[in-house]
Amino acid sequence: MIQVVNRAIDILEYLGQNLDRSCSLGEIALRLRLDKGTCANILKTLIDREYVTQVKRRGGYRLGPMTSLLPIGGSYERPLAKCARYAIEDLREMLNETVILSVIKNYKRHIVYKSECSHQVIVALKTDKPVYMAATGRLLLSHYSETEREDFIQHVGLPTEDQWSGLDTKEKLLARLDKIREHDPYVMKDSHHIVGFAVPVKKKGKVIASLSVFLPSFRFNDSMDRIIRRQLDITRELIEDAF
User: Fold this and answer.
1) Which DSSP letter does residue 160 get?
2) Which residue of 77, 126, 136, 228 is surrounded by the most CB atoms within 10 Å?
């Protein structure tokens, strides 16, 4: 992955998430963990190409007119969510457990679409969560290329003991990610008694999202395990065929 291109896309996606207002240079640099000078130079190039516009000479930034030629500012998330919606709702109705579709955005696990179960006890999921702490995040990171992993570790660092125990070296982290990549689905049981299943969703052979089911451990048994695995696989194929 070419780092400057990756950062330019991060800026466009961040502005796309804040269409109702302008964003200052300081805010963009802080939220995306960019050096202000680097951020300013990227913004200048994007302004020259009309993908970003500056509201005033020293004002904030918004998406520019050229992004109207791209689907939702160059992001595939909304079209993906739209294509996946009915398949996810059918899966949630069948299992009556929470189902989410996720991506990694701005170095965090980001939920693109969520359908919650109707049980009194549900799994509460934040829209954005540290990648190392989420089954979906770990799965997506496991499918990153070597270069993408290096970039991620450079920005985020290694997981803390609270985020992912025992991975205090890069070698240990990469070895664990390689093991996760071999499992389909990846199943994670955390300290809060939550069971999560995650499978990769692909487009043209590249993993673009994760489809996941979460439930409290007291509703989990061998029968539920078999059903979730089978239905996740079916739903993933439906989403990939639709997108």
Assistant:
1) P
2) 136
**CB 51, CB 63: distance < 8 Å:** yes
CA distances from 54 to 14, 34, 63, 220, 233 (A): 15, 19, 9, 52, 45
> Which pLDDT tens digit goes with each residue over 5-21?
989 998 998 888 777 78
Residue the block writes with tokens 């990939």: 240
Structure-block tokens of residue 240? 């990939």
Phi-psi region of 9 (alpha: psi -120 to 50; beta: other; left: phi over 0): alpha
Phi and psi for 120 in degrees, rounded to 5?
Answer: -65, -35
Whole-structure pTM value: 0.69
pLDDT digits (tens, 9 = 90+) for 56-74: 767 789 888 776 555 443 4
* Residue 122 near residue 97, CB atoms below 8 Å: no
Distance CA 220, CA 109 (A): 24
Secondary structure letter of residue 220 according to DSSP:
-
Residues 6+ apart with CB under 8 A from 165: none
Q: Are 137 and 188 in contact (CB under 8 A)?
A: no
